[in-house]
Write a structure and sequence with these properties.
Structural class: alpha+beta
Number of helices: 4
CATH superfamily: ph1033 like domains
CATH class: Alpha Beta
Radius of gyration: 15 Å
Number of strands: 6
Strand order of the largest sheet: 2-5-4-3-1-6
Strand content: 25-35%
Order of helices and strands: EHEHEEEHEH
CATH topology: ph1033 like fold
Distance between the termini: 29 Å
Helix content: 10-25%
Largest sheet: 6 strands, mixed
Number of domains: 1
Shape: globular
DNA sequence: GCCAACGTTGGC
DNA sequence: GCCAACGTTGGC
């Protein structure tokens, strides 16, 4: 079982939205490196839900991969902002996963807290200009995050 | 195949 | 709102 981190702008889709929907296809990723990570994900893997581009950014909750290797339907929809005219149903270019809500953390872990806890080597997300929206986490980092997110003050 | 222009991400 | 980082596009 592997741990991941997946980013979303809460204005577009937040942990509360996922809590309401229970399950959702994680569509709209249009970066090859992020897609390659999505292809590596297996059902049962856990991922941290990171809120980006908000005040403050941070880790808001946990989700589980409920279905692996899902073809992103938005690539075929000319009305979608994620439409890709170079993709075809015979040879789809963009795969993703379906995720299910696990929990919203009692403790939101803000970006400044993340910086105080981890180095840029442990958590590349902290690097300036780092833009990948899907990334793997080491077991070590994941377990520290879980302990902190659930710890009672 | 190079690289300038352009667009997007996302912290601040 | 600014702007650094960086991926993509397209002319040559």
């Amino acid at each position: 079982m592997r741990y991941w981190l997946m980013k979303s702008e809460p204005g577009a889709y937040s942990i509360d939205d996922l809590a309401r929907d229970k399950r959702e296809v994680w569509d709209g990723v249009r970066n090859y490196q992020a897609r390659n990570y999505l292809r590596e994900m297996r059902a049962g893997d856990l991922a941290f839900f990171y809120h980006s581009n908000c005040k403050p950014p941070g880790v808001a909750g946990l989700l589980r991969i409920s279905k692996e290797n899902v073809v992103d339907p938005t690539q075929f929809d000319p009305e979608s902002r994620y439409f890709d005219p170079k993709s075809s149903r015979e040879k789809p270019r963009w795969q993703t996963v379906e995720v299910e809500f696990v929990e919203k953390f009692p403790n939101y872990i803000s970006l400044p807290q993340l910086r105080s806890l981890f180095s840029e080597e442990e958590l590349p997300l902290l690097k300036r200009g780092y833009r990948l929206s899907v990334l793997p986490l080491s077991d070590d980092v994941a377990k520290k995050l879980l302990a902190l997110a659930k710890k009672e003050e």
